[in-house]
From TrEMBL:
The chain crosses the membrane at residues 21-39, 69-87, 94-113, 125-144. The keyword Transmembrane helix applies. It comes from the Bacteria. Signal peptide: none annotated. This is DoxX family protein. Keywords: Cell membrane, Membrane, Transmembrane, Transmembrane helix. The lineage of its organism: Bacteria, Pseudomonadati, Pseudomonadota, Betaproteobacteria, Burkholderiales. PANTHER family: INNER MEMBRANE PROTEIN YPHA-RELATED, OXIDOREDUCTASE CATD-RELATED. It is a multi-pass membrane protein. It is found in: Cell membrane.
Length: 156
């Protein structure tokens, strides 16, 4: 039993270090990766706005919104929320906003479910999962949110 406890203690030796720094490094990598996926999509929409409007009028079936408003909101969300996420300010609301943009893309583009290659729909599932992880664990140490939290803690 003593040997087991020593072995267990050894396996747990770096847990606090990993929890403190490893999660922050992972959160930073996730923030940059997911944000980059949406930034690229938003930039493409902005670069060819007429094609974007055409897509929203003819392909995407966004409920409740006009195609023009949906295009502005979709591209705006793809460009605004990733910037917040990369910097790490209002990170959880930004991740939640991107999650909503991602969910709306899946809902409004039913052809995603019918492609022979499931990569497109799977990408949306992966991004949604990564955004949920960021919502749950937060942005980590390498973020403006953490700096503000530390400054607030020192002030009070």
């Amino acid at each position: 039993m003593n040997y087991f406890l020593q072995l267990h203690r050894l396996s747990m030796r770096f847990d606090s270090l990993l929890e403190e720094w490893g999660v922050s490094v992972l959160a930073l990598a996730l923030r940059i990766f997911v944000a980059w996926q949406f930034l690229k999509a938003g930039w493409i929409k902005l670069a060819d706005w007429e094609s974007t409007l055409s897509l929203f009028r003819e392909e995407y079936m966004v409920p409740l919104l006009s195609p023009e408003l949906a295009a502005v909101m979709g591209a705006g969300g793809e460009l605004f929320f990733p910037l917040l996420l990369i910097v790490g300010v209002f990170s959880r609301p930004a991740a939640l906003g991107l999650f909503a943009v991602n969910a709306m893309a899946v809902i409004s583009y039913p052809q995603l479910w019918q492609f022979e290659c499931p990569a497109a729909i799977n990408d949306h599932f992966y991004w949604g999962l990564l955004l949920l992880v960021l919502i749950m664990v937060g942005p980590g140490r390498f973020s403006v949110d953490q700096r503000i939290k530390n400054m607030d803690r020192l002030a009070n």
